[in-house]
Amino acid sequence: MKLPKLRELLEAVKSLAHKPYTSKFPAQPHTPYPGFRGQPKYDQASCLGCLACEEVCPTEAIAHRDLTADGKPHRVMIHYTDTCIFCGSCEAACIADHRGIRLSADWELSFFDRAKESFETIEKDLAVCEVCGAVIACRDHLRWIAEKLGELAFSSPTLYQSRLRELGVVDPDVLEAARSFGRADRMKILCARCRRRTTLTTAAWPEGLPAGQEGGRGPA
Amino acid sequence: MPKSVISIGPYHPLQEEPELFQLTVEGETVVDIEVSVGYNHRGIEKLSERKTFDQATFVIERICGICSTSHPFAYTQAVEDIIPVEVPERAKYIRTIIAEGERIHSHLLWFGLAGHFLGYNTVYMWMWRLREEILDVMEILSGNRQNYAMFKPGGVRRDIKPDDIPLAIKKIDTIIPTVDRLRKAILDDPVLHARLKGIGILTKEEAIAYCALGPTSRASGVARDVRKDAPYAAYDRVDWNMIVGAKGDVWDKAVVRLLELYESIKIMKHCLLSIPGGEIDLNIKSIPPGEGIGAHEAPRGETFHYVRSDGTNRPARHKVRAPTFMNLPTLKATVPGSSIADAAIILAAIDPCYCCTERMAVRAPGGNKLYGGDELLRLSREKTAAIMKEA
Predict the structure, then answer these.
(1) Minimal Cα–Cα distance from B283 to chain A, Å?
(2) Do A21 and B143 touch (CB under 8 A)?
(3) Which domains are present in chain B?
(4) What is the pLDDT of residues B224-246, one digit of tens each?
(5) Total-model pTM
(6) B142 to chain A: which residues are within 8 Å by CB?
(7) Which of A41, A152, A185, B26 is in the most buried spot, having the most CB atoms within 10 Å?
């Protein structure tokens, strides 16, 4: 009966000399262990804007808006910090070697104004169809696909022209050759629908026929 | 002696979660108990049918706030049972490490709460301080203190880095002397002996009849543990003992949990030291039509999941059976006959987890009439009207 009480008494006396176990958090910053899963952050340079992260996100914490109204079409990638559960699915699914979006060690995510501070965004340039103006994909994404495909990318004018323009190369021979065969309409950056159309037409897209309507077969 | 009913809950300071216990008492003695569930229903099974097999893991992880790995463990095993596939060896070890770390912190949390209920706040503070250490280990290994997001059908999401293992083992080693000290302090304490021994007895026959699970049944002498009976993950590659009690009172339940701490530390350390190399994920692309079951010995008992696939990328049906669902009815056997003061710790002794249990809510007609605000107002007005009529 006496012994256990003595042992605990000793423990109590020892704890007087100890400093408190709890940390002085707001006064002293807390550093998590390496490998801590904190808020995912986009990397402007590496992100391709491919939306793989949005597809896999289990809580729909990732969204995007395509803004084409002004002269510079761009895609806004949005990450909502309040909905995010820091699972790392986005990083695992990122096609840019898992570098486009990465979990950071940032865990202090409280904010005052939900409408203004609950998200982080980056902007990526969009490639739009030269005929109908529809969104194709992000410029970086098209370039990435063209590089992955290598010479196979030359089967798609949209892909190889995106790449050439990105590099600042204009190949007049290719354009002239295409024009001389009467297929200048294909030598453009086109959305999937317009590409299908131009492939089905046997001649140039007729002047004055509005794009994006059915029955677009031109004169032979 | 007149009987009266004491309601504990649905919202009560004794409980962290909403649940209604109605104790029928004669004086100080409890003669009957009624347990009503359904206050914490969140529709998780339906939610997981709306997510892909991969995404559903995160919803299921949030079924329970304490044993957040138990449910994904059982779920991923159920999904792997549909295909069926065997996960890589390294993934099995990682799964075992995470599950055992969770058992340690869950048992420590229970001890803290039990001490708190008994008025032993020193035990509460010690246990929760110790729990911080093990949560740190989990943060080192998985990147988070809770909701580890490690499990996925076909393996694990995240590898344990070889550099992290020595740090984790060092931390685990530092908690062993403290656990020893706590074990001595708890096992020697005459007050705890007096408070816990011989109350809330669940006999072996009753444990079998009520299908009790986990430490609740093992304390009654039912040697049943999924990890031993149907070994999965890396449990058959480690030498460990099943802790079985004898009497089934609250004391035995506490001792079983206390000694299970040591076994879990042993399993965790063994797995960390002998983890094999290789792949951690099978990268399952599609799930064929079919159905599968998965079971995992959670800290509170066997968690059981059933998943049916119709060939799409989402589960067609997902059923969850949590251990507390089986352990709650044992209160019918343990609480009657005890005093009201003992009822609190007997209720807590099964380590109930209501958010795991609540898979559906049924509104059954009948029972005692409950008056809402409108009805009370109506009664009051009727009485005024009656008095005015008389006057």
Answers:
(1) 12
(2) no
(3) 39-336+345-357 (1.10.645.10)
(4) 999 999 999 999 999 999 999 99
(5) 0.87
(6) 37
(7) A185
**Cα A214 from Cα A218, distance rounded (Å):** 12
Calpha distance B36→B213 (Å, rounded) = 20
Widest Cα–Cα separation across chain A: 108
User: pLDDT digit string (tens) for B266-280?
Assistant: 999 999 999 999 999
Q: Among A1, A4, A32, whose Cβ lies nearest the Cβ of B139?
A: A32
A and B: number of Cβ contacts within 8 A: 57
Of A3, A58, A92, the CB nearest to B55: A58
Domains with residue ranges and CATH for chain A: 40-126 (3.30.70.3270), 135-200 (no CATH)
Q: Each residue of A56-111: pLDDT tens digit?
A: 999 999 999 999 887 889 999 999 999 999 999 999 999 999 999 999 998 888 88
Which residues, 6 or more positions from A99, have their beta carbon under 8 angstroms from its beta carbon? Answer: A43, A46
Burial letters B205-227, b for 16+ CB under 10 A, else e: ebbeebbbbbbbbbbbbbebbbb
The verdict on A7 touching B (C-beta cutoff 8 Å) is: yes
ipTM > 0.90, yes or no: no
For residue B191, give the chain A residue with the closest CA: A1
Would the CB atoms of B132 and A37 count as touching at under 8 Å?
no
How long is chain B?
391
